[in-house]
Amino acid sequence: MHVLWIRERLAAISSVGHRPPGIDRQILALAVPALGALVAEPLFVLVDSAVVGHLGTAPLAGLALASTILMTVIGLCVFLAYATTAAVARRLGAGDRTGALQVGVDGMWLALGLGLVLAAATWLSAPWLIGALGASDEVAQQAVTYLRWSAPGLPGMLLVLASTGALRGLLDTRTPLVVAATGAVVNAVLNVVLVYGAGMGIAGSGLGTALTQLGMAVALTVVVVHGARGSGAQLRPAAGGIWANARAGTPLFVRTLSLRLAILLTVWVATGLGAVELAGHQVVAAVWGLAAFALDALAIAAQALVGHALGAADVPRVRALLRRTLQWGVGAGAALGLLVGGLSWVYVPLFTTADDVRAAAVAALVVAAVTMPMAGWVFVLDGVLIGAGDGRFLAWAGMATLVVYVPFALAVREAAPPGAAGLAWLWAAFAGVFMLARAVTTGWRARGTAWMVTGA
């Protein structure tokens, strides 16, 4: 990466705080690039699917299984980004730029070590992991091949999470956007060249993705390291700093685990309802996930801005940020709800030609759309509390909301009617009950002051 561009980015970061713009401008300045980076990541899976899909049914089915495992591993490690963002923003707000970059460097060392362990474990256990999903021999062989060729990219992907978290904490979401967008293009080119040009088949897709992830990690690491050197932060691994990052990330790991378990439970219930309901659920989940990226971008802005304000001990600004980001979240959720529900009959046919699946998906999407404003509230409050470093509460609240959701999900599986009504009831349970439980717990916490710990 060009040194001049790096200096320009770091100069922009260092200028933050001299003349702070209005809250709305700060929110948008962070949220819009963050949204771009978030959307760029799923393009990896879409490109892989498009390229591998032309190899045949077995390779595409194998990719579906392998990518599910990889996305689960990466999803559970998202705490590397969240914990780093909060810690770096807090130190920057306290005026300790050197300490902020030191936290970022320590988080990246943790990501590298964890990534190497997970890459080795994934490579070695690939046949067992795929076998546990019950795939046929031909599909299993394709899945294991992809999983093993892509596993070396895990250290890179985890480094991307940690370095992105560090840059977000420094109030820079543009650099991760540039790197993510570039990576999406490079990944597409490498996949085509390796799969078809080099004749590697599905192995080429896995290798292309791994190489892209490693390249993105190098690019982001260069930016963070350059900033660390300029501020006087140490680059060598420090056991104390790495351990502190691990401790800070553990509650967020538990919180993410509760979300993943809720999603897996929802898929299990949809499977039990029948093939039509499961197919419709896949459509609804895909649309919900895309809407969640937009709301998560606001949560990322809340993380960085709240952490920065708490570090500066500016409690009135924290309250102002909380109020305004919640307004943005609810408003964005309402707008997305209108699009998701109001236009469902237009875009659902793009996913399926089966009339019964269409009807089920549309019914569930209308239910999900009604809950979108509440989802915006939940996502933003999540970001606020993560930015405040309130991970322990989020861990307990996550498990508590999962406990609340379980009986409702089980009731749907046992008593819901077939077809569209059954899937609508399932999404009423997930997007309604589960999200309401999250809204109540995080809203109760935000009303108090226990989470507003100021200083570095």
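(the above was protein one; protein two follows)
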Amino acid sequence: MGFANIHTRLPGEKSKDLLERRQQIVPKGVSYGIPAFAQSAEGALVKDVDGNTFIDFVGAIGTINVGHCHPKVKQALHEQVDQFIHTGFNIMMYESYIELAERLVSLAPGNHEKKVLLQNSGAEAVENAVKIARKYTKRQGIISFSKGFHGRTLLTMTMTSKVKPYKFEFGPFAPEVYKAPYPYTYRRPNNMTEEQYDEYILQEFKNFFITEVAPETIAAVVMEPVQGEGGFIVPSKRFVQGVYQICKEHGILFVADEIQTGFARTGKYFAVEHFDIIPDIITVSKSLGAGLPISGVIGRKEVMDTSEPGELGGTYSGSPLGCKAALAVLNIIEEENLNDRAETIGKKVMAKFEQLSEKYECIGHIRGLGAMCAMEIVIDRKTKEPSKTLTNEIIKEANKRGLLLLSAGVFGNVLRLLMPIVITDEQLEEGLTILEDSIEAVTGVQNESLITS
């Protein structure tokens, strides 16, 4: 028997009862990935209330890099609860906030002086990064990128590209937000090489300041070093460095949104380290807290100090529990060499993806950086027509077999892997086998139905 163990239909009886209760009381606008309710979780395994055990390739959408319920995180939280739960840093301060800020400053790229603001969620971090950038530059405009995702609040929803489900009928949106083109190498014109495409997209970004908005009105450019919800799209170093240089030329702050890419996911503490740039501001969250709500804005001292007392913060911002969890996470990443482990996982996953892409025509493209890996599912490799339907069928089949899996991409046709970095080799191998079996089962059924008809 492997690690995954499914002995009921999904949902099981207990989950089915809870699902019925949910439907009565929770708005349908709150989605769910699998019709099951968690009972316990540890490392890369999650058990539901019906006793089914799943291998986790989702990690709560990239928040569990150090694994579920890591003993050191639990210990840190127990110790904090015994001392105090909350005082409000803006009322009575506590050392863990200061210590976490110091640790983040020491890890962030660049030798310049930095300061850190702590918040609760990724969207809050992005919102505050924009506030700070506007305050410092005395400009209002913000540039984000096509296919990007930055949150679901009014401003971050405006900065996000995917219309459904994030923006449809939720307007009007925040003003002075502009969308620039972002490279999607897999879907480049057929007559272009990758180098030509990079040059084209970079030129389009330069033209953006002629056709769309004047650069002297832009406070910040906000970029995910690897797009998450957009489909794990990895830009070239040439593109990222080109955008960064243009920002410098025009006095525009470069903001790296590291909310999904940070803290060992790509084999570095911060994904921008792969691109050899030093952002003015970095936003962090998700795996920083191992499941506890915590986020941060790391920025140049002179930028961060522009705001006056009371202009930044919040009731629960940088809570003691979140700070303690984050400090434990940073210790775990260092002590367990999770950056190196992410590189190893990524190589294993991409090697498997190579095998699968040779075997299954529905896999149009594979890509990744470190342990942030994805495959794009298509109807036809030549036309590259995306298949959201087939992607969802693979996910459902994987769930039935005991693998938590998630899609991404503006077309909803990308299978993205965000397993905890602490996953064992055996668990990883079993999860990848389940993925292959699920693809085979779904495509096999598809072929059989075609023959029958």
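Reviewer note on protein two: The first strand starts at residue 38 and ends at 42.
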